[in-house]
Each structure stands twice: as C-alpha cells, then as structure tokens.
Specification:
- It contains twelve helices and eleven strands.
- The strands form two sheets. The protein has a six-stranded mixed β-sheet with strand order 2-1-3-10-4-11, sandwiched between helices. A five-stranded mixed β-sheet has the order 7-6-8-5-9, with helices on both faces.
- The protein folds into two domains: 116 residues, D-Maltodextrin-Binding Protein, domain 2, CATH 3.40.190; 103 residues, Periplasmic binding protein-like II (D-Maltodextrin-Binding Protein, domain 2), CATH 3.40.190.
- By secondary structure, it is an alpha/beta fold.
- The longest helix is centred in the N-terminal third of the chain and has 24 residues.
C-alpha cells in the first residue's frame, strides 16, 4: 500500500515537472527583439546604436523608417512597433491625443542640423575647372543645380526655406533648384551627380562618407529640429524601456555626435 502511494506521488511529480520548469525555459512571453520606428534620416544612427546594444545584450533591434506622419498612421493600424522616434512637437501632440504613444514615456531625445552638402568628387572636379571659385551655397546659388526639399512636404523643406530666406539666398537657390520630397531623395541626386549641392540633415552627411559639408546653416535661422522618443501602446518587447534608456546614455553622446546628432537633456 505504501509503495503504491509512493509510486502515485512519483508519477504526479513527473507530470507536474514540465509545468514547473516551463517558465525557467522561456524568459519572454514574446520575442525579446525591440522594434523601432523612426525618421528615414535616423536609420544609420539607430541601426548603429542597435548593433552596439545587441553586442552588449544579445538582443536584436529591428529598425523601420518612414516620415513621422506615416509612422503614426501605421501604428494606428496596429503595425508592430515598440518604440517610435518622431520629429516635431505637433506630431508628438497628435500621437498623444490619438492614444498611439504612452505619454509617460514621451521624452525629447536628439536635435539635428540642416547643412548644405556636396561630394568630395564634385568639389575636386569644380576646383580643377575653376581653382579660385568657391564651392558653397553663396557662390553656387542661382548658378548651379541644388537639391531642395519641397517646403510643403517635409520639415527639412519648410525649415530649410526659412534658413535660406534668413540668409537672403532663397530666391537665388530656388531658381535653379531640383525639388525633392525628402532629404533621402536630395542625397540620391547628389550621389548620382545630378546636382552640385543638396540641402540635407547632418545625419545624412554622417551616413555617407562621400559627402562633405560646404555650409552649416545658422541654428538661429530655423526652428530647432527636435526628435522625441516614446513607447507605443502596441509595444510588446519586454526590452523597449531598456533600449530607450540606452539611447539616452551619456556614454553614447560621442557616437551620436559622430552621427550628426546632439543629445538633449
């Protein structure tokens, strides 16, 4: 009788054992990967930081890019994203009002800059043709094709126009401009040699070793280009908060500066 009871008890223990150890086998209810949605000009910086995070933690970061307005629409349709890095106060207000982001996680993150860029090859070619002529915005505005983002389509275009107006160069620059919808298109035209200059973000220049800054537009000539970070209500990764904190760590400021970004307090 006693042996039967012991046998039954042993059987029950063996049946319960898998359930008891199951939580120890699975640290996460879902995949630990962190999915980040951000502006296209931030792809290089966020991808680099994601690689550093993975090296440190072993946890992958998936980066998807689109203009902030498009990202918010995707999130509203429950596209997977744990973190969004968006541009502009108006967009963060809209995201909060639409209950797309968790307002308690919303923080300013980085500031970008507007610059005028050329390529090293283009500068060398211009210097060879005319050694005494400057290869910058003031010298080429109205005389050479320049890629400018359409002021009605993107923040870089609207603020770029303000900056060029403040410098008294808008009329001349726009008279020979090639209009594009964003700085990615401006960068493409510059790479392909279709324009001699392009008004882009500092992050675009940092992402392409062939690009050279010819002009840094005065920060006072346009509104601050601020990015914010927040967790979305669609967030699934248990590591979203940790990765957001990683992006703000002081020890990564030198890396971010190299990417063309300024860390905000």
């Amino acid at each position: 009788m006693i042996s039967d009871i012991r046998g039954l008890a042993l059987s029950l223990l063996l049946m319960l054992a898998p359930a008891a150890i199951a939580p120890a086998r699975a640290d996460y209810v879902v995949a630990p990967d962190v999915v980040v949605a951000c502006e296209p000009t931030l792809r290089h910086a966020v991808t680099d930081l994601g690689a550093a995070w993975r090296k440190q933690t072993g946890i992958p970061v998936r980066v998807f890019t689109s203009p902030t307005s498009a990202l918010l629409e995707q999130i509203s349709h429950r596209a997977r994203s744990d973190i969004i890095i968006g541009a502009g106060e108006a967009a963060s207000n809209a995201a909060t009002e639409r209950q797309l982001i968790k307002p308690e996680t919303l923080q300013p993150l980085w500031r970008n800059q507007l610059v005028v860029a050329s390529t090293a090859d283009e500068i060398a070619k211009a210097k060879s043709a005319s050694p005494s002529r400057a290869h910058d915005l003031a010298a080429l505005a109205g005389h050479a094709p320049i890629a400018l983002v359409d002021p009605t389509t993107a923040l870089a275009g609207a603020e770029g126009k303000k900056a060029l107006q403040a410098l008294g160069l808008w009329e001349a620059a726009s008279s020979r401009s090639v209009g594009v919808v964003d700085t990615a298109d401006a960068s493409f035209l510059l790479t392909e040699g279709k324009v001699q200059l392009a008004l882009v973000y500092a992050t675009d220049v940092a992402a392409d070793p062939a690009f050279v800054v010819t002009d840094r537009l005065p920060a006072s000539s346009y509104a601050p280009l601020v990015y914010w970070i927040a967790q979305t209500y669609n967030a699934l990764s248990p590591n979203a908060e940790k990765f957001a904190a990683f992006l703000r760590q002081a020890r990564d400021q030198e890396r971010l500066h190299a990417e063309g970004l300024e860390v905000l307090p």
